[in-house]
Design a protein that fits this description.
By secondary structure, the protein is α/β, with parallel strands linked by helices. It has a single domain, classed as Rossmann fold (3-Layer(aba) Sandwich), CATH 3.40.50. It has ten helices and eleven strands. It has an eight-stranded mixed β-sheet with strand order 1-2-4-3-5-6-10-11, sandwiched between helices. A three-stranded antiparallel β-sheet has the order 7-9-8. The longest helix is centred in the C-terminal third of the chain and has 22 residues. The protein is globular. The chain starts with 9 loop residues before the first strand and ends with a helix.
Length: 295
């Protein structure tokens, strides 16, 4: 499972709310794995993990505003992103897939839980229950982020020694740079515009983004991989975990995997850990199907 090459994925287009979404698909056997990325990233950040599952059908979406998908005008509300996943599942016939989401992607997988047979939430952006309805994050520094680049290689060389990218696996960082830029004139710009990214962060705590009313009805198996770097009140630290410490206990069939000392960028720094959890869930589902088929 862990070794082997995967051919380049097919690039497909799915429409959600009138917006065109880029969807990357690696053909293979069911049940499929559907990958949902974090704010500011894109579907191809999952390539390193997908390569660990040759022969398995894998699908990675570029959420609206990211990668090669259409760019909405801010404000960007979190209630929109789960509709992207629902549209992809419906159009590509992915009912019964495993939903795998990192950060904002984890939030969106829960919001679209009816589409999935099992959920793996990698440090999902689901804050403690009392955090919603308050003041949003100050994301003004994101609007000042460098937007124009000569090439993906220039971006890679710039980031490889800078936090938080310096600790990413080089292969993942290259994927991030290659597919995180869009051609513009004679150069490139960020595929997730700074205005869009900042707006997503700023609306992450709005009351409508809370999923606590729906979580008790998510009856599928749910695994929460939770980073150990704790947030500091009043400090916007992208490396800190945004996940409520008791989140797994809120689900009827939740399982908590606490990763002491790990930061929020688990799929980028330790993709093997994520792959191990995916493999465990696949194994559990295979075993359960076998037991239910016995006379």
């Amino acid at each position: 499972m862990i070794n082997g090459k995967v051919d380049s994925p097919d690039l497909k287009t799915v429409t959600a709310d009138g917006m065109e979404l880029a969807v990357w698909e690696w053909p293979g056997e069911a049940p499929a794995l559907l990958f949902a990325h974090a704010t500011g990233l894109h579907g191809r950040c999952w390539d390193r993990i997908v390569r660990m599952f040759p022969g398995r059908r894998c699908v990675a979406v570029d959420f609206r505003g990211h990668g090669r998908s259409a760019k909405p005008a801010p404000p960007c509300h979190w209630t929109a992103f789960h509709r992207d996943l629902e549209a992809v599942v419906e159009r590509l016939g992915l009912e019964g897939a495993m939903g795998i989401g990192h950060s904002m992607g984890g939030h969106s997988v829960v919001a679209a839980a009816r589409c999935f047979a099992a959920l793996l939430l990698v440090d999902p952006t689901i804050f403690p229950e009392g955090s919603y309805g308050g003041t949003g994050f100050d994301a003004s520094f994101i609007r000042r982020r460098r937007n124009r680049w000569k090439s993906p290689e220039e971006m890679f060389e710039r980031f490889r020694d800078r936090a938080p990218f310096a600790s990413w696996q080089p292969e993942v960082l290259r994927d991030y740079c290659e597919f995180g830029l869009a051609p513009d004139g004679g150069g490139f710009v960020l595929a997730c515009p700074p205005e869009v990214e900042a707006s997503i962060y700023e609306h992450s705590r709005e009351r409508e983004a809370s999923l606590y009313a729906a979580i008790p009805y998510v009856t599928q198996p749910v695994t929460v991989m939770r980073a150990g770097v704790e947030p500091v009140p009043g400090v916007f630290n992208l490396a800190a975990s945004p996940t409520a410490p008791d989140l797994a206990r809120k689900f009827p069939h939740g399982r908590d995997v606490f990763l002491s000392g790990r930061n929020h960028f688990i799929p980028m720094e330790w993709p093997e850990l994520v792959a191990e959890e995916i493999a465990r869930i696949i194994s559990d589902r295979t075993r359960q199907r076998g037991e239910s088929a016995r006379p």
